Amino acid sequence: MNAPDPMIRITTQRQILLEELGKTKNHPTACELYDMVRKRLPRIGLGTVYRNLELMADTGIILKLEVGGSQKRFDAEIEPHYHIRCCRCGKVENIEVDIIQDIVQSAAKKTSYDIIGHHVEFSGECPDCQDGSSKI
Amino acid sequence: MNAPDPMIRITTQRQILLEELGKTKNHPTACELYDMVRKRLPRIGLGTVYRNLELMADTGIILKLEVGGSQKRFDAEIEPHYHIRCCRCGKVENIEVDIIQDIVQSAAKKTSYDIIGHHVEFSGECPDCQDGSSKI
DNA sequence: CTGCATGCAAACCGTTTGCATCCCC
DNA sequence: GGGGATGCAAACGGTTTGCATGCAG
Q: Model-level pTM greater than 0.85?
């Protein structure tokens, strides 16, 4: 888990998956990526998308977000950062907040867990949804 | 969302659901609760469990946790607190960390979202899983 | 030639929903 | 008697998996 196998073959599918993931600022779900990739690789299967996302997340090439909601989301940005999720439309965006090392430290002291990670997620209404607030 | 309807009938099913949820220190999934409740109410349906958990979460009687993992988890403790999830066995426990108001403040400044909540989740290996570490 | 990667489809799991029945007010 | 609550089972959405085929090394 700390030293994942860094060597996987970069097949056409994986390459394009990476490119599409890298080109969006969003944090797409597997299905959204499937749709994006399918424009360039019409015969790709959903299973391949899931398999490769999972694989690339395991190898640390991409990040599998541990955010709320019922779908998994992926991110080409693997540097630590936090997220904010719109509670109306479900969109997930990055939010710049200083990493809270002291919180992690104090958490580590209070538990007998071997802490390997943390994540912070804010939720709220995004500007778009605030506009159309009373509708829908 | 801020003023949820506080008045729902406390039926037998809801009462027992609440009792069972309150008596565990874990953060059970709907299925786990279903199993617990079924010992006292053998004919209860899974649908009822889901419907009532959802309803009670909406009314603010209980908390629906926004943690990672593929299943929703529920909590009778509605005061704000944070969680730590074992990355091996998936167990979720409470962790006592001071609420980080300043982080929330600074987050609010950096985004045009109307922030209504946040949650922090640590992940790591729980003591039990550390013991049996190399097994499984 | 060999084995990993793929496409496809069926299986799976957690959750939601429609509906007939039941029970409480 | 009427309206919400329940049990049941079928439907659903997202994800995983088994398998035959394809392709790169």
A: yes
